[in-house]
Amino acid sequence: MESRVLGAINLIGGPGGAIFETSAEIGGSTLPFRLELDYPGRFDERQLEQLDDILLGWERIDAMAEESLTKAMENPESAPAQLFQLWEDEDPQRAGKTSQFLAELQPLSVTVLWDIDGIHKDRIVMPYSYSPLAEKVTLRFKDRIGVEIDPAPRGGYQPLR
Q1: Contacts of 118 (CB under 8 A, 6+ apart)
Q2: 56-82, pLDDT tens digit by residue?
């Protein structure tokens, strides 16, 4: 099969599950991309067309992520707010610059879990950070729910050393 976005889809695995990994231009950035299938035998041209439509309309996913991250900043206990605190502490000139922090947060990778059984399951998982070396905030796009953000690690985020 050939994707309009991802090129040739060569699944690795078998009847019990398969993956496809590549780098892809998504939302204006080249990101590591992973497709996970529980039932690879069911993944056909029609489903590939649906995946391409999602990837080609990525602005909607970006908007949902941005809205979720912005809203989470209102809660000082949220992972984005705690990561913001770490980001601020790294440079005193950043104090209070929430919009700059949010602009610097970028997805590090995209994992699409295409056919997981059940409702309210992760469909897209994306870690975000302001630097590939810094701590990350993970967004989960859940079936029938929307975006959920993983909690911050126990003990909070740790500064780079």
Answers
A1: none
A2: 999 999 999 999 999 999 999 999 999
64: amino acid identity, one letter: M
Given the DSSP bridges, would you call strands 12-14 and 7-8 parallel, antiparallel or unpaired? unpaired
Looking at 44-121, which runs of residues are DSSP E strands? 106-107, 110-113
Of 85, 66, 64, 76, nearest to 151 by C-alpha is 76
Q: Which residues, in sequence order, are bridge partners of residue 25?
A: 30
Reported pTM: 0.91
The single residue listed with the structure tokens 């780079």 is: 160
Burial of residue 9 (CB within 10 Å: 0-12, 13-18, 19+) is middle
